[in-house]
UniProtKB/TrEMBL annotation:
Annotated ranges, domain UDP-N-acetylglucosamine 2-epimerase: 23-337
MF (Gene Ontology): hydrolase activity, acting on glycosyl bonds
NCBIfam families reported for this sequence: NeuC_NnaA
Domain of life: Bacteria
Top-rank EC class of the record's enzyme: hydrolase
Gene responsible for this protein: neuC
Organism of provenance: Helicobacter turcicus
Name of the featured protein: UDP-N-acetylglucosamine 2-epimerase (Hydrolyzing)
Length: 375
C-alpha cells in the first residue's frame, strides 16, 4: 500500500485539501498520513487542529513549529527539522502540499532533498506579496503540480516546469462550497451571532508593509466602527505583523455590532459568507469563494493586487475615508460577468490521477524546460 502524507498548516489549506485527504483515507490502495503543524496548534489562532480531529484520520501527527514570536524563518527551519524526522521513519511514497506558506515550503524542501515525490496544489497563482515567492519556490521543488486553471499551468511552464507534470484539477474547496448544506440558522446559533444583516471582515498583514501595518489596521477598524454596520471579524494569519492587527481588534471587543473569532469552521464560514451583505478585507477568499458566490466584495490594500478576479472587486487603499466610502456604496456594486469555474469535482480528478499511477511515473529528476532551447 502506498503511503501518502498530506501537510496542513492553516485553516486556509485544510479547507482546500480535506476532500482529497478523505478520498485517500477511504481508499484500499493508499494509506493516508496527516502532518498537522503551524497555526492549527496555536491557541491564539483558534487551535484549529480540533477541526481536523473531527475527521478521525487514522494516522495523524502534530508538530508545533513556532515559538511565541511566530517568526516565519524560524518556523520554516523548525518545520524542516520536524518534518524531516517524521518522513525519515515513515518513508512515504508521496507528499502532498498546498499553497504558499512556510509549512508547504518546508515539506517540499524535505521531500525533494530526500528523493520523495512532492505534489503541490494551487501553484502558478499570483497574489502580489511574499506569498508569490513562497508559492513559486514550492513549485520549483515539487515534482507534480495540481493547478487551478490554464493560466496557472502557463505560469508554471514559464518557471521552466515540464508540461507533463502539470494537471489541472480546479480549486478543491469549490466542490465543498457547492455541496455545503448547513443552514444559516445552525451557523448563527453555533457561533451565537444575533445579527440579521452582517458583513464579514478579514484583514491580514502584508509582510513588506510592516512599517505601516499598525496604521492600516487602525484605519480598517475605525472605518468598520464608523460604518455602523454589523460585522463578523475573523483573525488574520500569523504572518509578520499580525500582532498589530490583533491589537487594533481589541477596541472592537464588547461592541454589540461586532463578533470576533480567531477562526470559523469551514462549512460554517461558507454558510455565513453566502448570507453576508458583503465581505471586506484582503483575504484570498474574496477572490475565490466570495467571487464564486457573487457576494459584494471590498478589497482593502495591496495583498491581493495580482490575484485573478481583483479587477471585479471594489478596491480601496487602507485609508479610513476610502474604506468608508466603499462600504456606503457596496450594495450598489455592479457585478461584471464572472466566468464561473467549470471544475467542481477536483477531489475525484485528483484521485483518478493518483490511481492511474501517473503521479508515480513522474521523474524525480526535474528538468528545466528552457525557452531558449528548441526541443
Ligand atoms: N477559512 C475558514 N474559516 C475562517 C476563515 C477562513 O475556513 O474563519 C478558510 C476559507 O476557505 C478561506 C480560506 O480559509 O477561503 C483562506 O482564508 P484566509 O483569509 O485565512 O487566508 P488567505 O488565503 O487569505 O491567506
Amino acid at each position: 500500500m502506498k503511503k501518502i502524507v498530506f501537510v496542513t498548516g492553516t485553516r486556509a489549506d485544510f479547507s482546500k485539501i480535506k476532500s482529497l485527504m478523505l478520498k485517500v483515507e477511504q481508499s484500499q490502495d493508499f494509506e493516508l498520513f496527516v502532518f498537522v503543524t503551524g497555526m492549527h496548534l496555536s491557541h491564539i489562532f483558534g487551535f484549529t487542529s480540533t477541526e481536523i480531529d473531527k475527521y478521525h484520520f487514522k494516522n495523524i501527527f502534530k508538530y508545533i513549529n513556532f515559538d511565541k514570536y511566530f517568526q516565519m524563518d524560524k518556523a520554516l527551519a523548525s518545520t524542516i527539522d520536524g518534518f524531516s524526522k517524521f518522513i525519515a521513519e515513515l518513508d512515504p511514497d508521496l507528499i502532498v502540499v498546498h499553497g504558499d506558506r512556510i509549512e508547504p515550503l518546508a515539506a517540499a524542501i524535505v521531500g525533494s532533498l530526500n528523493n520523495i515525490l512532492v505534489a503541490h496544489i494551487e501553484g502558478g497563482e499570483l497574489s502580489g506579496t511574499i506569498d508569490d515567492s513562497l508559492r513559486h519556490s514550492i513549485s520549483k521543488l515539487a515534482h507534480i503540480h495540481l493547478v487551478n486553471d490554464e493560466r496557472a499551468k502557463k505560469r508554471l511552464m514559464q518557471l521552466g516546469e515540464d508540461e507533463e507534470s502539470i494537471f489541472i484539477i480546479g480549486s478543491p474547496d469549490l466542490e465543498i462550497l457547492n455541496s455545503n448544506e448547513l443552514s444559516l440558522k445552525a451557523a448563527k446559533e453555533h457561533y451565537e451571532i444575533n445579527f440579521k444583516n452582517y458583513a464579514i471582515a478579514m484583514f491580514h498583514p502584508v509582510t513588506t508593509e510592516l512599517n505601516t501595518i499598525k496604521e492600516q489596521s487602525e484605519n480598517f477598524v475605525l472605518a468598520l466602527k464608523e460604518s455602523g454596520k454589523n460585522y463578523i471579524v475573523i483573525y488574520p494569519n500569523n504572518d509578520l505583523g499580525f500582532e498589530f492587527i490583533l491589537e487594533s481588534y481589541k477596541s472592537l471587543e464588547g461592541l454589540e455590532n461586532f463578533r470576533i473569532f480567531p477562526s470559523l469552521r469551514f462549512e460554517y464560514f461558507i454558510t455565513l459568507l453566502k448570507n453576508a451583505d458583503f465581505i471586506i478585507g484582503n483575504s484570498s477568499c474574496i477572490l475565490k469563494e466570495a467571487l464564486y458566490l457573487q457576494i459584494p466584495r471590498i478589497l482593502v490594500g495591496s495583498r491581493q493586487n495580482k490575484r485573478a478576479g481583483s479587477e471585479d472587486c471594489m478596491r480601496v487603499d487602507s485609508k479610513k475615508e476610502e474604506i468608508l466610502k466603499a462600504i456606503s456604496k457596496v450594495h450598489k456594486m455592479d457585478f461584471k460577468q464572472v466566468s464561473t469555474p467549470q471544475i467542481l469535482n477536483s477531489s475525484q480528478m485528483f484521485f483518478t490521477y493518483l490511481q492511474s499511477g501517473k503521479f508515480f511515473a513522474i521523474n524525480k529528476q526535474k528538468a528545466f524546460k528552457d525557452i531558449l532551447v528548441k526541443e
